[in-house]
């Protein structure tokens, strides 16, 4: 979560905690609205909209970390990338939750107070559901013993916040023009770097105009809408870099402060031909997403119905509002909709229409076992951690420093704060800030109490292991086997349904993914009525597709993934190096992407991978409009994707880059071997055909490629590893020719390559915890990455050695296996003071067997040998020398 910084003097205001006002409504005190469960501070000076403003810390209260936060019931037909919480019933079937979370296993990321549908795939965190069943915990979580939320009380605070926002004066403008794609547009414009407030009318929003956000990046945009029934129709755009882009995950990443506030609405309908960007605060309304690519932001509503994905984009952790003057009229008093539960059968059709619900209060009651969700002292605590490295790249054998910074973004003191850092293989800890201790490779730093707004940093100094720049003579027959695998899942789609499906390759790399459309109920449509809106890698190990069925009947499809192994198989023993070693395959963690707004027509997008890598997992994501993928082809430097656009859309094209050499082990690497197979086929008029492309005998297909004419419809392809089976539909009256091809990975690597020119990437992740209740569990981890460059050094010496009696512990990092002779001298003396041997292991530092000579022991006791000159001579590779400080007794 991004914390919006305010550069104003702040004075703490008195507040009431949620635990102290379980059923209290917001009240006006001396002309200032006090919001239960929220805390704030008054700013004394400032300019523009923020002049004299009051900063509300975590303005959404307990809803802060939830992508979906619903007072009563919901009907869902697709994935949520974030955490979700429902006070009542949730009808869902096979719903995936939390794909973008990094939360701890104990975090309450799935909360359903009433009955729930069948089978949630919870990617991170734990769950409160009744009964305790139907959840697949894919991130190590478990069932919670008590409901962690008092949603009824939380919504008392949210309704008060919406009323407060409704009383905030407008600072921006609403313009009706044609500046977005020369189409009728509704531009929401503001220039203040902190707060912009606009008020479009319900009639303007229902007109079908393009809706554009034009405010400074990082500022807050409050879109205040009056009326009981609100329908938003059109496409959502963002002004960026002097031009307009349709809302997508990238454009909304710099705009976490977009909030639609509908204090008096009882019915809100979203009908947009693009992705929806912005959080929705409609605490009395039934929010229905009738049409959207997906929603980006939080949904806080009395009820929620959607067959579309909700993407994680949490609202800002602070909101600066002008002081409230006494209202001239009472805030809306209409109650939430009735809480009629859905039937026990999970939904199988389109989301319900937006018929306004009645105004009876919800039937759900506050859970009696829920603990207070704010600290007894008042306000909120929110600990977060950031992490940085002293350099983005170093040569092996050099040193680096990690800085871990814990912050309390809340308004109350956080207690028992602890920062932990799991050091990755490839670095060795040399020193740490006071209060930090290390066990194995885990560094634990006791921070203690952290006041509101306080910051505490710790420093970890590490020695980076060398990456072999030179190794032994290659063996002419040494190689390793590789075994790709396949994963698949069946997908059923009801008429009009949009559904997402996720595949994973645990411990490996997704090299390809595809959706094959198999069947549409007879007489209800064609295979071309099933559209793949998105098919892309979401992580090195994961892939996701989003499908929409526009037929009038039921459709069936299958989603397939190809998995590369995380490492090779052990080396063949007949090579003379039969120690069972293996090499890792490495794919870049970040995708190469490009996002473009596209008009109707055929468009090509090219992506480039760095040198010494190859593209895998080509992907596309379409936000709104109407388009389909017609080409996916390798190029000399990367990958090309073509889409045929019928209605303007925003395309995000992506590819992951796989290194063509394995990691270095025992001073050598292996190159991967690939072959590209092509085949041209002719599809007869009016037919559906299956055509196969076959790899050589010693290879498996890992990435499918194709180039189709505009009139030919691709229905997906099935990876059968040796072959790839493509389904093609020709709806025209003439034959159509297509190019089908396949990238094949050979079963064996090349023979050894001594040394390596391939850098190693070290990803280091830190976490922060506290004993106080943390209002946002989504921001408790952070990572820093160092790229280690190959160098001539094969050994790295520590700065200090530990002495116990006459034994010296000297932990040497090495890029080559074997052993080394160690000799030690002392400054100002002649002869050796210690000698011995050390075992060299490329995976970790080994303790040495080095002993002081009798003369060396006397010098040490006399204090004449506290700084030692160490020489390490390995059995192969270059010798290393360095000065080591002696520590011990």
From TrEMBL:
It comes from the Bacteria. Keywords: Membrane, Transmembrane, Transmembrane helix. Residues 319-395 are annotated as: Disordered. Coiled coil: none annotated. The keyword Nucleotide-binding does not apply. The chain crosses the membrane at residues 20-38. The keyword Transmembrane applies. Residues 59-311 form the Choice-of-anchor A domain. Residues 323-375 have a biased composition (Pro residues). Residues 382-465 form the DUF11 domain. Residues 378-393 have a biased composition (Polar residues). Pfam families: DUF11, pAdhesive_15. NCBIfam families: B_ant_repeat, choice_anch_A. This is Choice-of-anchor A domain-containing protein/uncharacterized repeat protein (TIGR01451 family). It comes from Nocardioides salarius.
